[in-house]
Amino acid sequence: MKPIKKLVLLGTGLISGSFALALKRARLVEQVVGVGRSPENLQRALELRVIDAASQDAASAVIDADFVFIGTPVGQMGALMQAIAPNLAPDCIVSDGGSTKQDVCALFRQHLAGHLAYCVPAHPIAGSELSGASAATYGLYEGRRVVLAPFAETDPAVVARVNALWQACGALVHEMPAAEHDGIFAAVSHVPHLLAYAYMNAVLDKPNAALCLEFAATGFRDFTRIAGSHPEMWRDIALANREAVLTDLQRCATRIAEVTALVEAADADALYRFFERASDARSVWGKPSSGY
Amino acid sequence: MKPIKKLVLLGTGLISGSFALALKRARLVEQVVGVGRSPENLQRALELRVIDAASQDAASAVIDADFVFIGTPVGQMGALMQAIAPNLAPDCIVSDGGSTKQDVCALFRQHLAGHLAYCVPAHPIAGSELSGASAATYGLYEGRRVVLAPFAETDPAVVARVNALWQACGALVHEMPAAEHDGIFAAVSHVPHLLAYAYMNAVLDKPNAALCLEFAATGFRDFTRIAGSHPEMWRDIALANREAVLTDLQRCATRIAEVTALVEAADADALYRFFERASDARSVWGKPSSGY
To answer: Which residues between 252 and 281 in chain A have a beta carbon less than 8 angstroms from any beta carbon of chain B?
Structure first.
């Protein structure tokens, strides 16, 4: 495989930095330029050899690049796309690491409409409690999943190249439409966060909330762990993936109403079947033979 | 403190057996008689010296007992109370280890109406994946909480004695009305289980459920862990604590409807505050300085 000559990271952090390191280890990149707002973070990235050069100006940094990876929060992506659009080489690949895809695709369409043949929206599913360039590691993507959500307009050869680069980083690559991606993550990640936040608020509503929390044990601990997540980040994700989140919240509300009605009616048999279906599925989840 | 002369365990398992072992270690019991339906389990309890004598007949076993501890599932308690009532010494203390209290209190009132001065419904909050007499340990209650839910009719000296015995087992003892106990456990244990089961069923309802589960990660893993719990046990708990469970399910449904409306309205500020309240409370929970 042909190496990338000049990879530009817009946002130099855990996700983009680990992509750069993995490509360096695979000898699939010659030069990495890091762009970011924090001079200290860029300096650290240089020292750790995550990047070979640093810049605070996205528009000039992308000149001559053959791969641009946008690794910022989604809220910053539109302005960056707008800034780099005039300076992109005609065959420069542009990808990103945002955790929602329909909204990012809309930004690509808005700001890089003439360049879509080379655009491959992506979601590397990896993370850490840590962030910033100093948290980047060579092995972050080993065995982790990466979703590619290319446009109908994206050149199949470009998709294949991005796919091969991620595989070279050790990732398991899946291609699917942005809407399918967002529906999956609404169901298995975004909605559980909203439910955990809502549940925690409901406990706090109780007149004896402090006493309740004193008796809360391991079931509570695990069920509410994600209710401790960063409010700003999850506000942005909930709004970015609004439609899919609302669809799956509705699905949950229906099932919660059902279990409420079964308890109300004291329908022991139906309640048993309701619990058993969930328990059976949860018990096999994650086991190698389960097919999940 | 005066030791128990003859302690009878109705149901010889993890909870009752560990109570007996802790009392033996504290030299606060002279003889322990285990009653149970499984001869193998009783034999094992004798070998492990959890009990000193075994019986399969509750009614005759309680003759001359000064403390009877009912450690069976709640569903078996009524028949046992009825069987032992004629043979109880007038000052024999009767307690239990059921995880719901209003329904157990109702059984005490039904079957031991003339004996309530000596009855102390209790809930030792300890458990293990293991069960049976062979899982009993001396230290199960070290630092664990035990709730006592005595009747208005219970002799305060009897409550004080049961309290002191549990403290001698290493437990932190709380006294509260049965309704308050059930409200607390509905909120922090029973309702999370129902929500986790309902959520899991909602995911399974999706046409691409198998694909979704393939992408589910650590947030999903922890949020749904309790959805793998035993369907029969949780059906019984949900129905035993029906009123408190319905009250708190309603509380959660209200908060879920609220977060749904905020996402629908794309009300970023209110969504942030909603998440922040939950996140702040969850982040301090369990820390020594939190007051919880």
So the answer is: 252-260, 263-264, 266, 268, 271-272, 274-279, 281
Question: B180-290 domain in CATH 1.10.3660.10?
Answer: yes
pLDDT tens sequence across B218-273: 899 999 999 998 898 899 999 999 999 999 999 999 999 999 999 999 999 999 99
Residue of A nearest to B256 (CA): A198
Q: Where are the alpha helices (DSSP H) in A48-190?
A: 58-61, 74-84, 102-111, 156-168, 178-185
Return the amino acid letter for B186: A
Task: Spell out the alpha helix ranges (H) of chain B.
Answer: 14-25, 39-47, 58-61, 77-84, 102-111, 156-168, 178-185, 191-205, 209-215, 218-223, 231-240, 242-264, 268-284
User: Which residues in chain B have their CB less than 8 angstroms from residue A185's CB?
Assistant: 215
* pTM for this predicted structure: 0.86
Task: Pull the structure tokens for residue B235.
Answer: 């059906």
Q: Which one-letter amino acid corresponds to residue A90? A: P
Can you give the residue ranges of every domain in chain A? 4-176, 180-290
Q: In what order do the strands lie in the sheet with A29-35?
A: A53-55, A29-35, A4-10, A67-70, A93-96, A119-120
Phi and psi of A29, rounded to 5°? Answer: -150, 140
Please determine, for the modelled complex, whether the ipTM score is greater than 0.85: yes
Any idea how long chain A is? 292
Determine contact: B75 vs chain A, CB below 8 A: no
Q: Identify the CATH homologous superfamily for domain B4-176.
A: NAD(P)-binding Rossmann-like Domain (3.40.50.720)
Which of A162, A136, A190 is closest to A28 using CA atoms?
A162
Q: Minimal Cα–Cα distance from A14 to chain B, Å?
A: 18
Whether B281 and A200 lie within 8 Å, measured CB to CB: yes
- Do B227 and A278 count as a contact with CB atoms less than 8 A apart? yes
Asked if B136 and B48 count as a contact pair (C-beta separation under 8 A), the reply is yes
Least CB–CB distance from A189: residue in B198, B220, B246 = B220
Neighbours of A127 (CB within 10 A): 15
Q: Which segments within chain A are labelled E, that is strand?
A: 4-10, 29-35, 53-55, 67-70, 93-96, 119-120, 122-124, 145-148, 172-175
- CA A173 from chain centre, in angstroms, equals 14
119-178 in chain B: CB under 8 A from chain A: 125, 145, 147
